[in-house]
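Weekly sync, protein design subgroup
Attendees: M.S., D.O., the rotation student, P.L. (late)

Item 1: inverse folding check
M.S. brought a backbone from last month's batch and wanted to see whether the design step gives back something sensible before we order anything. D.O. pointed out we never logged the input encoding, so this time it goes straight into the notes. Structure tokens as presented (154 positions):
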């Protein structure tokens, strides 16, 4: 018998309404990367946009295409495109970061981004990731509603 743990290969699929709660929890778990205050103080308006109800609304919205990355029974990443021109969400839980999951989601989302320019509001830490996807910084760091981001486009 082997001591090796079986590695579960994450699967990317379209998100469903039943995923909304878990997606919300995943985004909240990485929110400290983009909220100015690590506890989210001042970001209440933004945090309302990632409640399970808000996520369900995005999944149901015909102008938003939403993906979930599932490993075993858990959602470990999410990505969404809005209006065919904005990379709306791209989040990977901390335990799965650095495993090319964001790249795999990007590869599935990119063909849906038919508008020009394609935009994303990047966390400060994710700027190098988006640069690898071909995005360029399009403006100075923005601090609004308790979050900080860098506008980028391609």
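Designed sequence read out in the meeting:
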């Amino acid at each position: 018998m082997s001591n090796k743990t079986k590695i579960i290969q994450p699967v990317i699929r379209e998100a469903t309404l039943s995923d909304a709660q878990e997606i919300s929890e995943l985004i909240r778990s990485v929110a400290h990367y983009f909220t100015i205050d690590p506890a989210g103080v001042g970001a209440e308006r933004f945090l309302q946009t990632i409640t399970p109800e808000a996520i369900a609304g995005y999944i149901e919205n015909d102008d938003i295409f939403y993906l979930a990355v599932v490993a075993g029974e858990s959602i470990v990443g999410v990505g969404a495109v809005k209006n065919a021109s904005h990379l709306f969400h791209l989040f990977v839980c901390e335990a799965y970061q650095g495993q090319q999951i964001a790249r795999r989601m990007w590869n599935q989302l990119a063909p849906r981004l038919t508008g020009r320019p394609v935009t994303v509001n990047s966390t400060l830490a994710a700027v190098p990731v988006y640069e690898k996807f071909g995005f360029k910084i399009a403006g100075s760091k923005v601090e609004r509603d308790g979050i900080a981001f860098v506008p980028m486009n391609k």
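Discussion: DSSP finds five helices and eight strands in the chain. The mean pLDDT is 94.
Action: P.L. to compare against the previous round before Friday.
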